[in-house]
Amino acid sequence: MNINEIEKSVKDCVYLQDTMNTAVHPIWRGNNYNWKRAMLVEYVEAIDHLNWKWWKHQEPNYYQAFIEMVDVFHFALSNVMESPLNFESDLSKKISEIAEQEYVPENKQQAIVAIEHAIKCIYADNDSLDLIELTLEPILISHLFLGYTVSDFFKAYIGKNVLNLFRQANGYKNGSYQKQWGNYEDNVFLEQILNETEVVDKDVIFNKLQEQYNHITVGSMQ
Questions:
Q1: Which one, of 168, 175, 190, 174, lies nearest residue 66 by Cα?
Q2: CA proximity to 69, closest of 109, 112, 33
Q3: What is the pTM of this model?
């Protein structure tokens, strides 16, 4: 991706994140949401996908760890959006620098070390806290250690943002939404949709999710 494409993607992400946050609460800024705790939980969930337990056999699932990085980005982006920083230009430039780094295939151990470092940075002294760097971390980890490019990251972000909006539209906040669709979570169906499309269209993704969800929920009532 070139810098112009990255700048456009960052603007799109900011718009989509504001849309998502507004769906949760119309006036989401200033509500003292604990973005850092949310980031921490997603990072820990990412580690859990990387076969770190020595007492249990588990194959590392790099894709699910990658999706957790995308979830971290949702909260990190919200965090910096709530700040007074004019961050979009600097964020785009630093993402461009990541995109220029050598693309590295999956490396479980280095990914875990990088995630643990990112967690420490979340809870660093506020005077030294760099909100832009916190926002970059999940992209950097995905690119260097999980085997996913910057372009992959933006595509997955849009898809997950649509899924989050879909969840809200179908009762996620009041508890009526069914996250388990048959034998799999909704994230798996999102992955299938993204793998089948070259151009990411928010409306197409939403409609395909709705079609599958209707099929699952109607089937469960029969």
A1: 190
A2: 112
A3: 0.89
State how far the Cα of 59 lies from the Cα of 6, in Å rounded to an integer. Answer: 33
Rounded distance between C-alpha atoms, residue 117 and residue 122, angstroms:
9
Query: Which amino acid appears at position 116 of this protein?
Result: E
CA distance 29 to 208: 31
Tokens 């250690």, located at residue:
145
Residues in the chain, overall count: 222
The four Cα atoms 137, 138, 141, 143 give a dihedral, to 10 degrees, of: -110
Structural domains of the chain, ranges and CATH numbers in brackets: 3-221 (1.10.4010.10)
What's the angle, vertex CA 88, arms to CA 83 and CA 91, rounded to 5? 100
How does pLDDT run along the chain (222 residues), one tens digit per residue? Answer: 899 999 999 999 999 999 999 999 999 998 999 999 999 999 999 999 999 999 998 899 999 999 999 999 999 999 999 988 889 999 999 999 999 987 777 789 999 999 999 999 998 866 546 889 999 999 999 999 999 999 999 999 999 999 999 999 999 989 999 999 988 889 889 999 999 887 788 999 999 999 999 988 765 544
Nearest of 166, 177, 176 to residue 206 by alpha carbon: 166
Strand 184-185 to 180-181 pairing: antiparallel
What are the phi and psi torsion angles at 219 (to 5°)?
-65, -35
Instruction: Check: CB of residue 137 under 8 Å from CB of residue 70.
Output: no
